[in-house]
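User: Can you write out an input/output pair for a complex, sequences first and structure second?

Assistant: Here is one pair. Inputs:
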Amino acid sequence: MSPEALRAVDVRKVYHGRGSPDVEALRGVSLALRRGERIALLGRNGAGKTTFLRIASTLLIPTSGQIEVFGHDVVSSPETVRPLIAVVPQEGKPFFHLTPREQVYCYLRARGIPREDAKARTEAALEKMGLEEVADRLSVTLSGGQKQRAMVATVMATEAPLLFLDEPTIGLDPFARRAVWDVLRDLTRRGCTVLLTTHYLDEAEALSERLYIVEEGQILFEGTAEEAKRQIGGTLRVSIENGGNHRERFASFGQSVAEGNSLHIITEPGRVHEIMDVALREHLSATVGPVSLEEAFLTIVGRSIDAE
Ligand SMILES: Nc1ncnc2c1ncn2[C@@H]1O[C@H](COP(=O)(O)OP(=O)(O)OP(=O)(O)O)[C@@H](O)[C@H]1O
Ligand SMILES: [Mg+2]
């Protein structure tokens, strides 16, 4: 068997509009996941994350390029690939006329998992996702977060070798979010490979062993969150409120990135007092903190993750 869980080479996707212009959603994406890794695709709205996941999970044909899952081509051998993967789609909803307990169990049975095993895995997944109390209610009556948890429970219970999760924690409260993170860590410890998309920087940092930053259909960065932060040339960030119009004034202190009205200067500890002096003289308020993935993202992409 191939040593990699997934390998994508130069994947391109053009959506042909009917009467509207074509959209180049992916412009040559190459990436690889080793077995047992947790990897995040991090990118703004419209970056191409879902398009990539749909191609990798055999739901969409790429315009060109190739994706292999455990050595099997997703376009020419989708039947071989499907039993090896499970997907939490973006904005996926559980079956309205089933309860979470029925949905998880039926899905496992449909995938060929024997009765007793399916039963045990269903109970474990419901418990892990905190769904015991609503497990026998029709999904149509669940809250948005409960529905999302039912989707994650369904997919985690499969323990498929490769799991795709498209923004799995959207709409979840902080406790449920942490539960999903724990579940994903546990799955990879047991040998599953996880590819998730997110536009939560803290999630990408807390959860993924490596991340890919995707922007306009291209990979702009590949590595750990630490590497992303190191790459931007400094360990501290001085944020200057309303500093946007004073960029020149601070140019000599290090790389600067604008976010809305604020100016962030990436610098070293030795230079902070000089920057604070200048800010003070200009009557600007400034705060100091460690460089975060946010600044790394701003620097690499040139725009904030939630900018329109
Ligand atoms: N069926 C489609 N037809 C035409 N264009 C599409 C289609 N699906 C997606 N797109 C476009 O392709 C680009 C990438 O979309 P995609 O859904 O992959 O982004 P995303 O990174 O998942 O964004 P989000 O964070 O909002 O979920 C966007 O410009 C989108 O409008
Ligand atoms: Mg998406």
